[in-house]
Amino acid sequence: MKRILLICVATIVMCGTTFGWSIREHATVAAIAEKHLTPKAKELMKQYLGGRPMAYYASHADFYRKDMILDIGFDPEEGNRMVVFPHTFHVDKEFNPYRDVVKKGEKKPHGNMLYHIDRIAKNLSDNHATMNDSVRLVHLYIIIHSIGDLHCPMHMRFIDREPSLGTYKVYFGKGKKKKQIGYHGLWDYKMISTIHPWSYTDMAELFDIYTEKEIAKFCKGDLFDWGKDVAKTSYPMREYKEGDEIDEIEYRKKYQQVGEFLLRKAGYRLAKVLNEILK
Question: What is the pLDDT of residue 5?
């Protein structure tokens, strides 16, 4: 079995400004997914996570980000290429996600979360029963976290909208309440968590409103289809530029329910991924 992940947990590292969702949103995604696991998947997850709920591990991939090193393959000119696990992916003009870690005609690797989620999911599917406990656990909490990141509006790079991760500041609110905030951070911790007084278990219960037939429709396709869906949904949000003033009420009218819908989809799709891995 090819080694695709090395982890050296030393200290908890909170790094960068490209987190996806807050801790509560990631826990909500995990809690929704847990409700839709098959009996077999639910039993195996309980065993593999040591009896802890999925939400317990939902943000570990953020906390330990710099300790997660991926092998993206051997290049005759560059040797082994190791990268920190990415939390973003690239899409083309038609919103189709790139399927590799190197763009055509280029040698320099770029972050492609979907590529690595796909590899890790396949590795888990083939080997979860025989994996070392700690290696399996790392694989699982990357899957749990990354499906959430996939559905965050700031976690895909559009080739025609730079800086495409929203790593710039805007003014959010009106009058005396107007505050300067990183646009990416607006979606990480301001957009949903701050408007709802609920716990993540409350959010999971209140957001999980669809029938099994509707859920099956949301879960059609694979990771790359879902990436295209999220990118297409998120593209209008990138019209805002450095220094723009955003009316909070109007912005929430346009995008609040969109964000909540993406959280729901993330939970349902995470359940599908785990059910397929642990069938």
Answer: 47
Residue 271 in 3-state DSSP? helix
**Which of 262, 97, 91, 98 has the alpha carbon at shortest distance from 187?**
262
- Check whether 2 has a pLDDT greater than 50: no
Residue 176 confidence (pLDDT): 79
- Residues sharing a CB contact under 8 Å with residue 132, sequence separation 6 or more, in sequence order: none
Neighbouring-strand partners of residue 245 = 171
What 8-state DSSP symbol labels residue 183? H
Tokens of 203: 């959010």
What are the CA-CA distances from residue 231 to residues 1, 38, 96, 131 (Å)? 33, 29, 8, 34
Q: What is the DSSP string of 216-255?
A: HHHT-S-HHHHHHHHHHHHGGGGG--TT-EE-HHHHHHHH
C-beta atoms surrounding 11 within 10 Å? 8
Sequence-distant (6+) residues with CB within 8 A of 243 are 169, 170, 171
- The pLDDT score that the predictor gives to residue 69 is 57
pLDDT (tens digit, 9 = 90+) per residue, 133-159? 988 998 898 999 999 999 999 998 887
Cβ contact 153:262 at 8 Å: yes
Helix 113-127, helix 248-277: angle, nearest 10 = 30
DSSP-derived secondary structure letter, 115: H
Mean pLDDT, the chain, integer: 84
CA distances from 220 to 224, 258, 269, 272, 278 (A): 11, 19, 9, 10, 18
